[in-house]
Amino acid sequence: MLDAVLAWLPYAVAGWVLLVGCVGIVVSNNYVHAVVCLAVVQSATYLLLLAIGWEPHATAPVFGDISTKARVVDPVVQAMTLTDVVVGATVTALLLALTVQLAKRHGTLDPDEVRSLESDQDDHG
After folding, report:
1. What is the distance between the alpha carbons of residues 88 and 95, in angstroms, rounded to a whole number?
2. What SS3 string covers 42-96?
3. pLDDT single digits (tens) 29-48
4. How many domains does the chain have?
5. Which residues lie closer than 8 Å to 105 by C-beta, 6 or more apart?
6. Rounded CA gap, 59 and 55, in Å?
C-alpha cells in the first residue's frame, strides 16, 4: 500500500505546485507577484524531474566507496534538474530586473495600470 502511494504522490505534488503557481499567475495584480508565481511553477518541474529519477533503495552515483553493482539513481536526471535550477534562477533574475525597469519608467507594477498608460500614450501620440 505504501509503495503504491509513493509511486504517484510525487507526481501529484508536482501537479499541485504547478496548479498553484498557474493560478497565482492568472490572479496576480502585481508583476513581482507574477514573477514569484512563475518561480513556483518552475519548482514544479524540479519536483517532476526528481520524481522521475527517484529509485527506491538507490544511492548517489558516486562509485568511490561502493560496489559498481550497487543500485544508483540516474545521474542524467540529476544533471537536468541542476540545469533547470540554473535556468530558473536566471529567468527569475532577468524578469525581476525588467520589473524594476518597468517600475522606474511607469511608476507602477500593476499590469492593468501599465496597459491603461500605454493606451493613453497611443491616444495622445
Report:
1. 11
2. HHHHHHHHHHHHCCCCCECCCCCCCCCCCCECCHHHHHHHHHHHHHHHHHHHHHH
3. 999 999 999 999 999 999 99
4. 1
5. none
6. 9
Residue 59 bridge partners (DSSP): 72
- Cα separation of 120 and 114, whole Å? 10
Given the C-alpha cell 520589473, which residue does it identify? 99
Q: Would you state the cell numbers that stand for residue 25, as one nine-digit string?
A: 499567475
Structural domain boundaries, residue 73: 2-124
- Neighbour count for residue 60 (Cβ, 10 Å): 10
pTM of the full structure: 0.81
Task: Show Cβ contacts of residue 51 under 8 Å, excluding neighbours closer than 6 positions.
Answer: 10, 11, 14
The CATH code of the domain that includes 114 is 1.10.287.3510
Cβ count within 10 A of residue 120:
10
Task: In whole angstroms, give the CA distance from residue 118 to residue 125.
Answer: 10
